[in-house]
User: Which sequence fits this backbone?
């Protein structure tokens, strides 16, 4: 197989491209120029829609389709919110994008804003991304100085303002309506839907929320066409009429007990094993892998035996994980105690639950208490069934919460218990320190 | 016309826009809920009202099919339309309700034995109706510290809170003062205020009623009674001319608290703190409890019938000499029935006896809510505390207008008294001292009046000058009708007996009239409606829960 030539990351090690001149010298903003001159907003939307691009933020909703949900002929203003509140542990693909190639993201922002006729784009970035925020702000300032933001971009009729908004470090702000509430200066409590943001979002106006990686993809799709995009990745499963396919390339983050943690761009559908062995350099210290989290912590666990799943939008679901998520793979080796891993995850979700819906607020805290007790060696066998049951019944899927945080909190718990039940039982029987593992902590590459 | 099916029972909701909770209520089914409240915005966060919802369809062949949604939905947030099917008692919704209750009780201290709310607590009620008997949590509960100083009148038992956020939304949406907010995240979330800005607005105690559990407690009521010992009567607040519908909660003839009673015609769901706390004078030991007659040998306490006899004799004698120099003063807080009886007595004395309105307190301007961030009232008014502090000025005026053409008020009376044009008078001044307290000059004005009978709750400058002192009854002791600013006539029920040895005001007037029997508000209303056209709407004698409008008593626009 010929090595895949990175597209999104092609300027990764070329710091000169961080500046406007460098980026333009590399062919940047030509797509935007062409689109503004030759294409109508609806044409841009159609190109993106036809390319089959699905959102890279985690849920994988078709981007072009989302754009078409905006009310037709709305007098405005319409807003674009760029969701760079990348708080999923072990996920750092957007961080690379905004730190190494801010103009690619900005070109995508302007293209998308043009397509949805937005007059203001809010770049919502998590507080912890100080360097990325500064890089973005510098790039935006450059664009304003060059007349490529503000009134009449590149001499066209189209005007756009981009505003950087720094979050205050909360996982829930990555939920699109939580982000909007936070942007409005309120407590980031996700809103009840409907109305969806496309109908009533930021400041009660139609709003599209997109991930930076999605927007970076938009640039390449408009530049090279939907057919090129569709030539990459995995076509839809013909047996599943609801599958929209997993086209294009994806930034995979690899972290955990691997020799070469980092980020790699690959066409969708690479198997977890290939990602680990070829791109991650295999498990560290010559050990074997015990399992992995295929796509950000909220997606659940898969065991070593399940490493052959393709990492596309459907793959992880086949082995009982929630989905592809952010495609951030965290591998842990055979010496890691699953109790420790689960404890760490439960602590994260109990800490980050916004506290609005009862099942999530109380459920995540309860699960943490139980896992903590198990870890102390005071667990009971029935705790496993309580954990599994609580995890199964919280979330937007059973309908008991407003947003998906609870699903993400429940999934690791129930997959851990289902897939590593024997280890839990041994731990319950023998207590901490006596099991097969020394009780190591996961090293989180993108962690908090 | 829209038909909704609640647990397979069809209920017609007309063309109203309702959510599942409201529609189910029409069908007599309770969907448990905490965060939803009719007067507040929908947040759908407590997840107590989870139900199954579907749609019932009839195809061309007339076959009925029902398609249910795969997951449970919050009933408060789900609007119903024609053909909506709601299932509240099936396994799925029952399971969801049980789980939510289990979650809510995980960290709840279960200190019901010392909790004020016990007995009227929705956490207790729902746990009993929808919950599980046992908790599966064996770990320690969290015990956040209480915040007794969260408000001037309100304290917070933090550990009992279930984070329904009703109180927060109330201060944001109804009072507009926004003192309360949520701090911290997840299970550590708590209700709190900013330092130095306690919950201190004129509607603050409503959050205690809104709180479905015992987290927010009224400092006034705290630890004073178990609620199941309280007897509740429908009352009407006497604090201002809004005339909020209330529950008057008493035990053994002592009033312990007032609570707002929902009345869309009067005030809605809430009431102000001033009105709510305006009951303390009722239980005050300093209240007058004896009928006193001042003679040459000093003052002596007499039986109530004797006091009435003295009044009859003296007022009758004065009226036969010159009825134009006999004055009867009516309190603006007395009921329509009392005014009717007293006015009848005056006319029995003579058609020329002067009928004057008592003092009507007006303080400042109407105070409307919500306020904006700078404390200015907003255009859309949700609650009004009125400047006119008399609860029945329109009702009494309506009665007086029937008996006397001239409109005489308190100043006319005082002027006449000062000018030596009053031979005898009966002053009914049963207003709460918080609303009106007679000044020294009023007593002095009576110096030259030959006979003064004063009906008062507390000793005042008027009673000092009185030849007969008649203890007045409090709002909680009389049945009757009050007419508010909009001409809404509401019935209030007596919840307490008058002080031992005394009679209610109405009963005393009956004695003056030498009429037999007891005061029966319903019968008197019928009697009044027959005679006075303005009170025609009262003719059935029963005003219902919300009252009836007497259009003619409304202030001219």
Assistant:
């Amino acid at each position: 197989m010929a090595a895949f030539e990175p597209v999104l990351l092609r300027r990764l090690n070329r710091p000169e491209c961080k500046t406007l001149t460098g980026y333009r010298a590399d062919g940047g903003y030509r797509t935007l120029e062409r689109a503004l001159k030759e294409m109508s907003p609806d044409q841009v939307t159609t190109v993106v829609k036809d390319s089959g691009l699905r959102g890279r933020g985690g849920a994988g909703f078709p981007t072009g389709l989302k754009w078409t949900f905006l009310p037709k002929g709305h007098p405005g203003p319409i807003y674009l919110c760029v969701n760079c509140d990348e708080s999923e542990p072990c996920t750092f693909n957007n961080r690379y994008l905004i730190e190494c190639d801010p103009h690619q993201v900005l070109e995508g922002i302007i293209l998308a804003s043009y397509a949805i006729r937005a007059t203001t784009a809010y770049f919502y970035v998590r507080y912890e991304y100080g360097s990325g925020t500064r890089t973005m702000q510098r790039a935006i300032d450059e664009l304003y100085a060059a007349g490529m933001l503000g009134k009449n971009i590149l001499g066209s009729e189209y005007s756009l303002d981009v505003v950087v908004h720094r979050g205050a470090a909360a996982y829930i702000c990555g939920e699109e309506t939580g982000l909007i509430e936070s942007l409005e200066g309120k407590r980031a409590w996700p809103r009840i839907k409907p109305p969806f943001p496309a109908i009533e979002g930021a400041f009660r106006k139609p709003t599209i929320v997109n991930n930076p990686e999605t927007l970076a993809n938009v640039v390449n799709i408009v530049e090279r066409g939907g057919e090129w995009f569709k030539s990459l990745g995995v076509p839809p499963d013909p047996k599943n009429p609801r599958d929209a396919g997993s086209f294009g390339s994806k930034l995979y983050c690899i972290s955990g007990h691997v020799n070469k943690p980092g980020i790699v761009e690959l066409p969708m559908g690479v198997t977890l094993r290939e990602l680990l062995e070829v791109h991650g350099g295999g498990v560290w210290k010559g050990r074997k892998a015990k399992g992995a989290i295929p796509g950000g912590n909220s997606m659940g666990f898969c065991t070593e035996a399940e490493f052959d799943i393709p990492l596309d939008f459907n793959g992880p679901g086949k082995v009982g994980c929630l989905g592809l998520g952010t495609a951030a793979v965290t591998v842990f080796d055979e010496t890691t105690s699953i109790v420790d891993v689960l404890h760490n995850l439960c602590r994260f979700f109990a800490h980050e639950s916004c506290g609005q819906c009862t099942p999530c607020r109380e459920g995540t805290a309860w699960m943490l208490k139980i896992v903590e007790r198990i870890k102390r060696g005071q667990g009971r066998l029935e705790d496993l069934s309580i954990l599994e049951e609580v995890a199964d019944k919280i979330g937007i899927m059973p309908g008991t919460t407003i947003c998906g945080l609870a699903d993400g909190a429940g999934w690791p718990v129930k997959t851990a218990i289902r897939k590593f039940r024997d280890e839990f039982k041994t731990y319950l029987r023998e207590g901490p320190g006596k099991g097969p593992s020394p009780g190591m902590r996961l090293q989180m590459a993108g962690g908090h | 016309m829209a038909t909704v099916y609640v647990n397979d029972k069809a209920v017609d909701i007309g063309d109203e826009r309702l959510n599942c909770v409201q529609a189910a209520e029409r069908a007599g089914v309770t969907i448990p809920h905490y965060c939803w409240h009719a007067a507040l915005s929908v947040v759908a966060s407590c997840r107590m009202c989870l139900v199954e919802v579907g749609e019932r369809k009839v195809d061309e062949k007339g076959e009925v099919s029902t398609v249910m949604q795969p997951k449970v939905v919050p009933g408060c947030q789900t609007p119903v339309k024609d053909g909506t099917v709601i299932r509240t008692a099936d396994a799925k919704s029952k399971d969801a309700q049980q789980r939510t209750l289990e979650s809510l009780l995980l960290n709840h201290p279960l200190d019901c034995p010392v909790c004020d709310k016990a007995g009227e607590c929705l956490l207790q009620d729902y746990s009993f109706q929808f919950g599980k008997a046992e908790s599966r949590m064996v770990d320690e509960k969290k015990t956040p510290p209480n915040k007794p100083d969260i408000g001037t009148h309100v304290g917070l038992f933090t550990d009992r809170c279930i984070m329904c956020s009703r109180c927060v939304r109330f201060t944001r949406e109804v009072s507009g003062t926004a003192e309360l907010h949520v701090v911290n995240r997840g299970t550590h979330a708590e209700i709190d205020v900013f330092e130095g800005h306690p919950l201190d607005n004129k509607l603050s105690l409503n959050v205690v009623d809104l709180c479905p559990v015992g987290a927010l407690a009224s400092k006034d009521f705290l630890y004073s009674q178990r609620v199941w010992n309280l007897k509740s009567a429908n009352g009407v607040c006497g604090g201002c001319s809004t005339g909020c519908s209330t529950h008057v909660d008493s035990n053994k003839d002592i009033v312990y608290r007032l609570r707002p009673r929902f009345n869309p015609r009067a005030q809605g769901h809430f009431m102000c703190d001033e009105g709510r706390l305006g009951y303390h004078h009722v239980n005050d030991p300093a209240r007058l409890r004896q009928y006193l007659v001042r003679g040459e040998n000093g003052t002596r306490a007499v039986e109530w019938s004797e006091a009435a006899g003295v009044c009859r004799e003296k007022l009758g004698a004065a009226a036969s000499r010159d009825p134009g120099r006999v004055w009867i003063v009516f309190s603006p807080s007395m009921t329509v029935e009392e005014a009717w009886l007293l006015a009848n007595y005056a006319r029995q004395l003579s058609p020329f006896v002067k009928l004057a309105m008592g003092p009507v307190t007006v303080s400042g301007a109407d105070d409307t809510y919500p306020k904006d961030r700078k404390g200015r009232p907003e255009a859309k008014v949700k609650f009004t505390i009125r400047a006119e502090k008399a609860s029945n000025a329109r009702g009494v005026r309506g009665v007086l207008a029937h008996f006397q053409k001239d409109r005489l008020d308190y100043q006319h009376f005082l002027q006449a008294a000062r000018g030596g044009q009053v031979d005898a008078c009966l002053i009914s001044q049963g207003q709460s001292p918080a609303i009106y307290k007679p000044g020294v000059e009023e007593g002095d004005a009576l110096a030259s009046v030959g006979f003064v009978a004063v009906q008062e709750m507390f000793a005042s400058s008027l009673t000092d000058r009185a030849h007969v002192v008649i203890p007045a009854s409090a709002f909680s002791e009389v049945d009757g009708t009050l007419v508010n600013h909009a001409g809404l006539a509401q019935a209030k029920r007596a919840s307490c007996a008058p002080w031992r040895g005394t009679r209610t005001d109405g009963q005393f007037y009956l004695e003056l009239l030498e009429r037999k029997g007891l005061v029966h508000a319903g019968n008197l209303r019928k009697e009044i409606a027959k005679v006075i056209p303005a009170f025609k709407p009262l003719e059935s004698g029963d005003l219902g829960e919300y009252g009836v409008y007497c259009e003619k008593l409304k202030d001219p626009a």
Observations:
- The interface with chain A takes residues 42-48, 50, 71-74, 77, 95-96, 99-100, 103-104, 106-107, 136-140, 142, 162-163, 181-182, 184-189 of chain B (CB under 8 Å).
- The first strand of chain B starts at residue 2 and ends at 6.
